[in-house]
Design goal:
The chain has two helices and 36 strands. The chain is mainly beta. It has two domains: about 150 residues, Sandwich (Jelly Rolls); about 350 residues, 5 Propeller (Tachylectin-2, Chain A), CATH 2.115.10.
């Protein structure tokens, strides 16, 4: 018993350290001109004083859901524990913008049917008749077809910007294991004669525009249960053997137990029908991975279980959290901040469907200065007498604002490690609506503020800005510091700092 407790303590401490510390930076950190620097990990953090890092959830669209079951072929018989007809649409691949047709395209699914929708604005979605797959004697529907396997459904579809015309669209089929498929139009797909990618029932697919590779994250068992494995491909035919990259740890078990208890005690949240403390457990259902401003961001789906349900599965709550990686091989990951939910379940009432489970699509899409996150939302995970419903929802976030360092009115600061740069102008993405932000430049060792670059000479930044230039009186720009190793000290007073960059 003592050994078990000791091991648990070590695992918890290991989880805490891994959650707070990113990859060790090189001796010289050079800022890429124009690349926004986010504070999702500690890579650029030199020191902190009276500030706290927090996850910043996107705002759920007030008109949710944006796509829901309307047609007979979008409905299907319910599970054994709830045989009533269900309306449970799902999405795993984010909509993609087709520059040729000037529309957003979405592939979603219900049971074993893949369906297609399109939109001019990403809010109002049309479900065109494709005439490809038969339903009850008619092809007047929006169902997508897989040649030679009409009963298959496609879980993932993406538009490959570098693909040949006949392989412009790529995807995976298969409830277990993943079979690559391709298409010229996104309506009729052909299976490739290639080996399957081993997977359980969850996965994600993305295209890495930076490394020109395809990223598949699939589900297998690992420590503490469901975990995320990685498979990569350059040609969409040859894939690396899935390798474990992300899983829950002992600290996640403690947080999950706390989360379940808080959920059960909150009357505004969907009631869990099972409460078995001896079976509490936290696992990772899936995790899409995508490049963003020189790093990789993951949207892991945490399943925090309250016990075993009568349908021989588990009761609990699914929500989306944040992870990040600076490792080009995508094998080393950091859980962001205090591991709080990035896209949580909604409270009951008000017509919300996403009160029991939330699962993110493959990546956010850029709409002007916003990032749009589409996600699947279910009304519950297991409730015997409540019809099972699922639909596609939307949440929006201002650019870069995944997480922030914030302070109260007494003030605090975030100081970077020693960095060098080639640009001449410093910008911040910050919200100082109730306070202000000032910046001072410190020498390489962080012990002395450079003359002429003090906070007193820095012009106060107030208000909410996605891009605010930092200026000092008596200084034209940062040209005099170009090539030197210095630290930026961001002083916050009732303010939040999301990112900075040198232009």
């Amino acid at each position: 018993m003592k050994q078990t407790r000791c091991l648990g303590f070590l695992l918890v401490m290991s989880g805490l350290i891994l959650g707070l510390k990113g990859a060790e930076p090189p001796g010289r950190v050079h800022l890429t001109t124009g690349q926004h620097q986010l504070f999702l990990d500690d890579y650029l953090v030199g020191s902190l004083y009276r500030v706290k890092r927090q996850v910043n959830p996107p705002v759920k669209y007030e008109g949710n859901p944006v796509v829901f079951a309307e047609k007979p072929w979008e409905r299907h018989p319910g599970p054994k524990w709830n045989p009533a007809e269900t309306e449970a649409l799902q999405i795993r691949s984010a909509p993609c913008w087709d520059p040729r047709e000037q529309v957003w395209k979405m592939w979603y699914y219900s049971a074993s049917r893949t369906l297609f929708a399109r939109s001019k604005d990403g809010i109002k979605w049309e479900k065109p008749s494709l005439g490809k797959r038969e339903f009850q004697g008619s092809k007047d529907n929006n169902m997508v077809l897989v040649k030679g396997d009409p009963e298959s459904f496609i879980q993932h579809v993406l538009l490959d910007p570098d693909g040949t015309p006949e392989r412009r669209y790529k995807g995976f089929i298969g409830g277990r294991n993943r079979h690559p498929v391709v298409s010229a139009d996104g309506y009729v797909f052909t299976k490739l004669d290639v080996p399957l990618i081993p997977s359980q029932d969850e996965s994600h697919l993305n295209y890495d525009e930076v490394k020109k590779r395809f990223i598949a994250t699939v589900k297998h068992r690992g420590p503490f249960g469901r975990s995320v494995f990685l498979s990569l491909s350059k040609d969409f035919e040859q894939w690396t053997e899935p390798e474990l990259i992300f899983h829950a740890d002992a600290y996640d078990q403690l947080l999950g137990e706390r989360r379940v208890k808080d959920h059960l005690a909150n009357p505004r949240l969907r009631l869990m029908t099972v409460n078995q403390p001896e079976h509490y457990n936290t696992e990772i259902y899936n995790m899409p991975v995508f490049p963003y401003e020189g790093i990789y961001i993951g949207l892991p789906n945490f399943f925090e279980s309250s016990g075993h349900s009568p349908n021989r599965n588990q009761e609990g709550v699914n929500s989306v959290k944040l992870s990040t990686s600076r490792d080009p091989s995508l094998k080393k990951w950091v859980k962001v901040g205090d591991r709080g939910s990035f896209i949580p379940v909604s409270e009951v009432g008000g017509g919300a469907i996403d009160t029991g489970q939330v699962l993110a699509a493959s990546r956010p899409q850029v709409h002007g200065d916003e990032l749009w996150f589409y996600y699947t939302g279910y009304n519950h995970r297991f409730q015997k007498d409540d019809p099972y419903q699922g639909a596609i929802h939307l949440a929006t976030l201002k650019r870069d604002r995944f997480a922030f360092f914030g302070s109260d009115k007494k003030g605090g600061f975030v100081e970077t490690r020693a960095v060098s740069f080639d640009g001449s102008r410093l910008f911040v993405n910050a919200d100082a609506s109730d306070g202000e932000l000032r910046v001072e430049v410190v020498n390489e060792r962080g012990r002395e503020v450079l003359e002429g670059w003090t906070r007193d000479r820095c012009l106060s930044i107030q208000g909410d800005h996605l891009s605010a230039e930092v200026k000092w009186t008596g200084q034209q720009d940062l040209s005099a510091l170009r090539g030197q190793r210095v630290r930026f000290r961001f002083r916050l007073y009732s303010a939040r700092l999301f990112s900075f960059w040198v232009q």
